[in-house]
Amino acid sequence: MSRKSRLRPIETSPLAQGYEVYHYDTVSSTNDVAKELAKRGAKEGIVVLADEQTRGRGRLNRHWISPKGGIWLSIVLRPQISPPEASRITFIASSAVAETLRQLYALDPAVKWPNDVLIAGRKVCGMLTEASTRADIVQFVVVGLGINANVDLQAFPSGVRRDVTTLKRELGHAVEPRTLIKTLLQDFDYRYARLKEGAWLALLREWKSQAAFLHEPVSVAGTGENLLGEAVDIDEDGALLIRLETGVLKRVLAGDLKLRKRI
Ligand code: BTN
């Protein structure tokens, strides 16, 4: 039996309607545990929450620092979508995080393409959406959210400290994780229900209204070349349209976007 299958949650609770939270103390990665449960038939709405992750993963397999105090969770979903549409889940999850932080703490968060939520230009949350597909059919999607909630900035290497933030730092006090998770799951569910009803374009418009990088000078790395230009739009497929300094309009499906000035 693998180590993963011997894991037992310390608690399970129906924090929000339709969502059952399996709370673990330490796991490798909540995405990995959620994927394992989904492969074994876990139903839509199972949420894997951990106090800490030993091998938290970000996009492009980057290490995601996940000490105690953060909110590290992954949701199992079984949407009827095609594989390229799975990225829509990332958009609605980041909208839900931004809206929750605004509602609960009167913060002014912004979403950033493709998978970040920022406060005053610093990353407070990242999203990792992974889809399992067979014969071009999505079997399940796991969306993982990492929120730097009650984490001290000292937990991050000095080299990245200026680019990240935590809720504790922004607010000057710790937040109550259960309230945050409950509100977040409720907001996510509202958007997910609309996505299933075909409201993708409206949801994308809402996401864009929460973005602070559109029409700003940006750079995009990770595409084979470093692109410099103005972020013009996000298209219906979730791709970034960037007007290069040469005037050419370029469509980018994946990359690391940076604002060239802090806003
Ligand atoms: C990124 O910004 O690159 C995405 C970060 C995603 C981190 C979360 S934490 C919960 C879930 N488990 C993981 O291993 N990763 C995601």
Task: Give a short overview.
This protein is α+β, with helices and mostly antiparallel strands and 263 residues long. The protein contains 6 helices and 13 strands.
Protein model, in words:
This protein has six helices and 13 strands. By secondary structure, it is an alpha+beta fold. An eight-stranded mixed β-sheet has the order 1-2-3-4-8-7-6-5, with helices on both faces. A hairpin with a 4-residue loop joins strand 11 and strand 12. Helix 3 (87-105) packs across helix 5 and helix 3 (87-105) packs across helix 6 (200-209). The longest helix is centred in the last third of the chain and has 20 residues, at 177-196. The chain is globular and about 55 Å long. The site of biotin (BTN) has 22 residues, from helix 2, strand 4, strand 7 and strand 8. Biotin binds at residues 29-31, 53, 56-59, 62, 64, 66, 72-74, 115-116, 126-128, 144-146.
Task: Present the secondary structure layout.
Blueprint: H1 3-6, E1 11-16, E2 19-27, H2 30-39, E3 46-53, E4 71-77, H3 87-105, E5 109-112, E6 116-119, E7 122-134, E8 137-147, H4 167-171, H5 177-196, H6 200-209, E9 217-221, E10 227-234, E11 240-244, E12 249-252, E13 256-259
Parallel strand pairs: 2-3
Antiparallel strand pairs: 1-2, 3-4, 4-8, 5-6, 6-7, 7-8, 9-10, 9-13, 10-11, 11-12
The chain binds biotin (BTN).
Biotin binds at residues 29-31, 53, 56-59, 62, 64, 66, 72-74, 115-116, 126-128, 144-146.
